[in-house]
């Protein structure tokens, strides 16, 4: 009997090892999951995170709570998750400044995080086109006219949600490609920048598509171009910078879930599987469209490759243009 028992135990251990720890997978989640958002409540990132958290909670039959940890351009919350216990109970929902923030903030390693190797990618949830909009009184209605005004010597400026943001990178990249100098006016978030371009306090702004759709649809703002390589199905009438001749200027926005490095692979697979089902739900797709976002999904590596590509491509542009958040 002892020999039989020992053999069964040995077999059980072998099966567990081969299957990646099913005992852990079967018990997860046994307590509430915290999803950290490194930005204040009320913005697009926070709202989308809460949408996914609610659906994930229903599927896992476990509480999924959002914890906002804003500060230092998102690096405060990102660093917190990077140092968290890798047990699947602390996750990060983040937009793409996750990749570039440490570069533009010039953080010391002790107060930063390892962008490429410090996290486990779970899923790339959605993409959001960046759009350049103009106030109708700006004096131009398209990119060629804007560039012409800029080259005439007339002072021209653009608003962004903040220094070092993807919008800032897109604008400065366009400045270089068009050989113009349109002045950056950084704001503290998308909302204030949109408010001021609608009011005419600043002639143009780089923002996310959803933040201005109500104004572009009513003529209160003119959409000039989007930063994606291809036109967005959410706004097919807006041309890309690529098709306008600026073939190297491609900057978009994305968001996704990460876990601390070392989180068990079976937990990552479980979360990825459930979130892939969530991004396909009609009500989720419809809600994402309100924010100007399109669902993505796929394997964890989709997010991993996007993060790595942005680190290389955007990092090169940031260094060449000397973009900082200071």
From TrEMBL:
Q: Which Pfam families match?
A: TctC
Q: Where is the signal peptide?
A: 1-25
Q: Which UniProt keywords apply?
A: Signal
Coiled coil regions in record? none
Report the superkingdom from the record. Answer: Bacteria
Q: Which PANTHER family match?
A: BLR1237 PROTEIN, TRICARBOXYLATE-BINDING PROTEIN
Family classification:
Belongs to the UPF0065 (bug) family.
Q: What is the protein's given name?
A: Bug family tripartite tricarboxylate transporter substrate binding protein
Which species is this UniProt entry from? Polaromonas aquatica
